[in-house]
């Protein structure tokens, strides 16, 4: 077979699997959770979406900024006022539905948690996430994708590949009881272990999938064929490693295959499938690039109530703004006085139409909501590499950039702090301040030379950002280095340990969800620094010839996106 | 509302189950914080606990679950004097909950439709004498966290807004769960939880298979499965009740008090809450095991869950603070 033909065959197979997944989902929407569809808008995705009405539940589309009263239901204010008795709206969560979430890669953490709780409530809803992320790390929240059985990537599939294969059986009415052979859970769990899948949801979902697959093919007992299909549908997207041929690649605790079992322990009882065949089947579908480092997991970057130092229209705290008319959606609080003021002029007119209504006559258009505006101050923590390797000229450029930024920070009322690391440790040269004069003086006196204790610099930045956050500032770490870390955290010269320590601390910083920016000041871009930036969850800017103006422009650009 | 997964049927996770049982014996220990990876059954365990707890006696229709008629708040306008028995309330605090939903607020419906000023009690009222469960506690909005801290501290909810001025009791056990990868929890809130446990997916294949088997029979043959575990759950419940009775008689030798103090000094945990929790938890454990005296063995087994979240954070400590506690316990208690 020629290469293109083989390619086409693989695509056809992939598409066939997608349809199988959809059929399983139609069989048991609640048990399988749903599907993640990763694709940009296009004909292939449209073909798949046009098939969604086959699912046995009504479909509701939601967007990432959906409000709580749409999800949970609430009082319908206008109807309540008109009828003078309480009339409730049904929320999205009150009945089982297929929830179709567009732009799933932008779902904020709190909405993700609400959706996850709804799925866990097991009233039979399923969730379809349309993940339109362009970058590898733009992904739908893990808390949700972990709960959904199928992950489909339409990358490279054309409309021609998406023909519905003949012979896909229609869903069977629920209630058909499918038996699970005693060995099945064992087979699925061991297989998951060999692919390094840690979450126990994966084998559970695979088992439900096998059940659904058996039911729609009219069987009353799960067969090896069902198990293989289930594993190939559920496992590939979750695998974290490629198994070797034999079972000895299991981690030590998983080696213990002695399951209390009345049958023999040779694994070749009447039911057992040659596990290798299943492994091969799943292996064939592993996403490419599994081994060039797993996709960095999106962290809770968008979590927390900090607004990156920008203005936020809130309805809780801050400077009061004039009240606005609006809908009571449970988030905003009503401004009673303003509401009454708005309703007052209309009373005589309304009284004419409703002469016997008690009390004030209020319409929903009179409702006024409180609004506040709060800003949190931003703190830029410059963490500058002042080692010998970051040549003295570079240090000059870095200083220039910091000075330029200081001017801007002054205009934007940001705070600035400066940490320099050289020799064996990091120094906080300048605690958070808005004083231009002081900062310039300290900068000018910044010496250079010695080793590169990158880890120590990161640690100082992490501590300072924690401290400043507790004071209500919004920290952002700007790291300028050439990345040749050679001093470990305890001050001993050791390249390998220094790199490890930096990784550890970068992870710690990311977990605190401190936004950052990595500026590479070496002569050639360093791949090691790029991976460190990924660990840090920060944009990476190689500036081989950093001049102050460009650094400043880059930082400003990166910050305005934050 | 489907019947939750039976508590006794949860495979492994001994730490988590033990912590929950101990707070059920002595609610004064404070809450439980469960941190761990996805899909380890955190929420399952909390929901299961609700079914396990002994029922409480309360005045019928009282919004704050008062035990006696004279304790009912006057704004509630209770008509009935009946005392009914009902399951211990386990109230969910959803992430999107607004301040009004949590503390209670002016009853907008009644204000708009009937022109009356009335108080609509919130989640804190419903959680009184029970449990308040916060899933994904580390993603909770800061101002809600502040509110909770304040109420958990004083045992009373004070509402002063929109012309209302109301206070009602709100004593509850906080149970929080979360995934540390999604975000950190503020130290002030950490310290409010009595116990903290970390859960991981079981690594033993046999255990994992057992989890799948049980979960599958729960999903598909629910009634039979629940019946099978009912007796186990009842046994645990009776044991909790017996331990509650025995708790007052558990003696604490002076040497144990000394050990508690020495442990906390060696660990450098902030404040005195650590010692108090450690002592209470050890006593609850002694009562659970049917002993009359607290011994070093009890201290040893509860020290990690009572103290590990009260240490100063060390970002470089990969092993986590639980290991640090165990090491210190070994060096102090020998």
Structure explained in plain terms:
The complex is a heterodimer of chains A (562) and B (334). Chain A is of the alpha/beta class and 562 residues long. Helix content of chain A is 39%, strand content 15%. In chain A, the strands form four sheets. In chain A, strands 13-12-11-14-15-16 form a six-stranded mixed beta sheet, with helices on both faces. A five-stranded parallel beta sheet of chain A has the order 2-5-6-1-7. Chain A starts with a helix and ends with a helix. With 334 residues, chain B is of the alpha/beta class. Chain B is 46% helix and 16% strand. Chain B contains 13 helices and eleven strands. In chain B, the strands form four sheets. Chain B has a five-stranded parallel beta sheet with strand order 4-7-10-1-11. Chain B has a two-stranded antiparallel ribbon with strand order 2-3. A two-stranded antiparallel ribbon of chain B has the order 5-6. In chain B, α1 (14-25) crosses α9. The longest helix of chain B has 25 residues, at 222-246. The chains are: A alpha/beta (562), B alpha/beta (334). At the A-B interface, α4, α5, α6, α8 and α9 of A face α3, α4 and α8 of B.
Short description:
By secondary structure, chain A is an alpha/beta fold. Helix content of chain A is 39%, strand content 15%. Chain A is flat.
Task: Tag the structure with descriptive keywords.
heterodimer, A: 562 residues, alpha/beta, 6-stranded mixed β-sheet, 5-stranded parallel β-sheet, 20 helices, 16 strands, B: 334 residues, two-stranded antiparallel sheet, 13 helices, globular
Structural class determined from secondary elements of chain B: alpha/beta
Query: Pair with the most extensive interface?
Result: A-B, 74 and 53 residues
Query: How widely separated are the two ends of chain A?
Result: 50 Å
Query: Cα-atom Rg of chain B, whole angstroms?
Result: 21 Å
Mean pLDDT of chain A: 74
């Amino acid at each position: 077979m020629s290469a293109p033909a083989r390619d086409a065959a693989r695509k056809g197979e992939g598409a066939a699997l997608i349809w199988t997944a959809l059929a399983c989902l139609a069989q048991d929407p609640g048990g399988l959770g749903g599907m993640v569809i990763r694709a940009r808008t296009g004909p292939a995705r449209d073909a798949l979406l046009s098939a969604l009405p086959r699912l046995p539940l009504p479909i509701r589309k939601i967007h990432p900024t959906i409000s709580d009263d749409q999800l949970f239901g609430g009082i319908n204010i206008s109807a309540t006022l008109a009828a003078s008795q309480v009339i409730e709206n049904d929320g999205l969560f009150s009945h089982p539905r297929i929830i179709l979430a567009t732009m799933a890669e932008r779902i904020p953490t709190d909405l993700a948690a609400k959706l996850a709780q709804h799925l866990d409530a097991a009233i039979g809803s399923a969730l379809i996430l349309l993940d339109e992320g362009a970058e590898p790390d733009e992904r739908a929240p893990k808390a949700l994708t972990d709960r959904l059985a199928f992950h489909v990537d339409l990358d490279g599939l054309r409309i021609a590949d998406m023909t519905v294969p003949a012979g896909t059986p229609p869903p069977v009415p629920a209630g058909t009881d499918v038996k699970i052979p005693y060995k099945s859970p064992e087979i699925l769990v061991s297989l998951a272990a060999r692919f390094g899948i840690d979450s126990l949801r994966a084998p559970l979902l695979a088992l439900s999938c096998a059940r659904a697959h058996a039911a729609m093919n009219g069987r009353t007992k799960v067969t090896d064929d069902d198990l293989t299909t289930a594993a190939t549908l559920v496992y590939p997207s979750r695998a974290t490693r490629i198994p070797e041929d034999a079972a000895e690649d299991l981690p030590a605790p998983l080696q213990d295959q002695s399951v209390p079992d009345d049958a023999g322990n040779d694994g070749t009882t009447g039911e057992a499938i040659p596990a290798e065949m299943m492994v091969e089947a799943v292996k064939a579908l592993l996403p490419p690039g599994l081994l060039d480092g797993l996709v960095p997991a999106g962290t809770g970057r968008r979590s927390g109530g900090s607004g990156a130092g920008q203005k936020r229209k809130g309805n809780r705290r801050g400077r009061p703004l004039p009240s606005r008319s609006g809908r009571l959606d449970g988030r905003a609080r009503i401004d009673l006085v303003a509401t009454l003021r708005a309703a007052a002029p209309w009373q005589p007119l309304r009284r004419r139409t409703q002469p016997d209504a008690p009390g004030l006559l209020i319409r929903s258009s009179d409702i006024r909501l409180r609004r506040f505006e709060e800003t949190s101050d931003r703190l830029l923590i410059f963490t500058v590499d002042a080692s010998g390797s970051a040549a003295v000229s570079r240090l000059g450029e870095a200083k220039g950039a910091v000075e330029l930024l200081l001017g801007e920070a002054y205009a934007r009322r940001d705070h600035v702090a400066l940490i320099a690391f050289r020799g064996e440790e990091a120094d906080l040269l300048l605690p958070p301040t808005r004083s231009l004069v002081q900062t310039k003086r300290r900068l000018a006196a910044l010496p250079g030379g010695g080793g590169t204790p990158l880890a120590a610099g990161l640690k100082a930045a992490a501590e300072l950002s924690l401290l400043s956050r507790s004071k209500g500032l919004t920290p952002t770490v700007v790291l300028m280095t050439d990345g040749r870390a050679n001093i470990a955290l305890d001050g001993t010269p050791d390249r390998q340990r220094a790199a490890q320590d930096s990784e550890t601390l970068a992870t710690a910083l990311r977990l605190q969800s401190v936004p950052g920016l990595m500026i590479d000041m070496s002569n050639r871009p360093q791949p090691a620094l790029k991976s460190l930036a990924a660990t840090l969850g920060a944009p990476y800017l190689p500036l081989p010839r950093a001049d102050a103006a460009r650094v400043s422009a880059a930082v400003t650009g990166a910050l305005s996106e934050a | 509302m489907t019947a939750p997964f039976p508590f006794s049927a949860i495979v492994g996770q001994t730490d988590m189950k033990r912590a929950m049982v101990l707070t059920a014996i002595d609610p004064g220990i404070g809450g439980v914080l469960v941190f761990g990876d996805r899909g380890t059954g955190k929420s399952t365990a909390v929901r299961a606990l609700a079914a396990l707890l002994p029922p409480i006696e309360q005045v019928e229709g009282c919004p704050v679950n008062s035990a006696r008629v004279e304790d009912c708040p006057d704004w509630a306008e209770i008509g009935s004097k009946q005392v009914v028995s009902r399951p211990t309330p386990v109230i969910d605090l959803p992430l999107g909950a607004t301040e009004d939903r949590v503390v209670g607020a002016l009853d907008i419906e009644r204000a708009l439709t009937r022109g009356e000023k009335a108080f609509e009690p919130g989640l804190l009222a419903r959680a009184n004498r029970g449990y308040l469960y916060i899933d994904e506690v580390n993603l909770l909005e800061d101002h809600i966290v502040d509110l909770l801290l304040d109420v958990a501290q004083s045992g009373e909810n004070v509402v002063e807004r929109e012309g209302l001025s109301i206070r009602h009791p709100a004593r509850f056990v906080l149970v929080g769960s979360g995934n540390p990868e999604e975000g950190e929890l503020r130290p002030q809130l950490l310290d409010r939880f009595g116990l903290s446990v970390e859960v991981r997916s079981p690594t033993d294949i046999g255990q994992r298979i057992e989890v799948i088997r049980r979960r599958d029979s729960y999903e598909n043959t629910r009634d039979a499965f629940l019946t099978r575990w009912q007796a186990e759950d009842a046994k645990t419940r009776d044991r909790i009740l017996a331990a509650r009775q025995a708790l007052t008689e558990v003696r604490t030798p002076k040497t144990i008090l000394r050990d508690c103090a020495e442990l906390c000094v060696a660990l450098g945990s902030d404040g005195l809450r650590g010692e108090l929790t450690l002592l209470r938890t050890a006593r609850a454990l002694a009562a659970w095991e049917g002993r009359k005296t607290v011994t070093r063995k009890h201290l040893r087994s509860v020290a990690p869950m009572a103290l590990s979240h009260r240490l100063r954070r060390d970002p470089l400590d990969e092993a986590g603070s639980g290991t640090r506690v165990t090491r210190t316990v070994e060096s102090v208690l020998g």
